[in-house]
UniProtKB/TrEMBL annotation:
Enzyme class (EC, first level): hydrolase
Species annotation: Salinimonas sediminis
NCBIfam families listed in its UniProt record: cyt_deam_tetra (TIGR01354), PRK05578.1 (NF004064)
SUPFAM superfamilies: Cytidine deaminase-like (SSF53927)
Function comment: This enzyme scavenges exogenous and endogenous cytidine and 2'-deoxycytidine for UMP synthesis.
Names of required cofactors: Zn(2+)
EC number of this enzyme: 3.5.4.5
Catalytic residues in the record: E58 (proton donor)
Chain's gene name: cdd
Residues the record lists as binding substrate: N45, V46, E47, N48, A49, A50, Y51
GO biological process, one term: pyrimidine-containing compound metabolic process
Record family assignment: Belongs to the cytidine and deoxycytidylate deaminase family.
UniProt-recorded name of the protein: Cytidine deaminase
Length: 137
């Protein structure tokens, strides 16, 4: 991905982060997905007083991508609210793996703009995917 496109994706994640609903933790996260069709989709975390009912930023961005008709992730950016990288939780790693190839980029950015770029294979080796559901012959 060229640096201009990457910066646009990072800016989109930061913009989504500003709209996060995090009244309980104060931990506002934004995410932005670049689909294989070069469309972008953003999301933020949405907390709920009943904690298990909240939704992560990555899940929101992926849901928005699917709603728009795209089905494959080329890259995803996750914007942290502080100066530490915000790695996706286990559930979000699986959600990303559902729509991303092992080579898809997962880019974490801090509040100060530091970047950490991994591939999906780095983030979730041996991911469980739909092909694993095939019946043994």
């Amino acid at each position: 991905m060229d640096s201009k496109k990457l910066q646009q994706l990072i800016d989109l994640a930061y913009a989504a982060q500003a709209n996060a609903h995090a009244p309980y933790s104060g931990f506002k996260v934004g995410a932005a997905v670049l689909s294989k069709h070069a469309t972008t989709h953003a999301g933020c975390n949405v907390e709920n007083a009943a904690y298990p009912l909240g939704q992560c930023a990555e899940a929101t961005a992926i849901g928005n991508m699917i709603c728009a008709g795209a089905e494959e992730i080329d890259a995803i950016v996750i914007a942290s609210p502080n100066n530490e990288f915000c790695y996706p939780c286990g559930g979000c790693r699986q959600k990303i793996a559902e729509f991303a190839a092992d080579s898809a980029q997962v880019i974490m950015v801090t509040k100060q703009g530091e970047r950490n770029v991994l591939t999906m294979a780095d983030l979730l080796p041996y991911a469980f995917r739909s092909a694993d559901l095939a019946s043994p012959q």
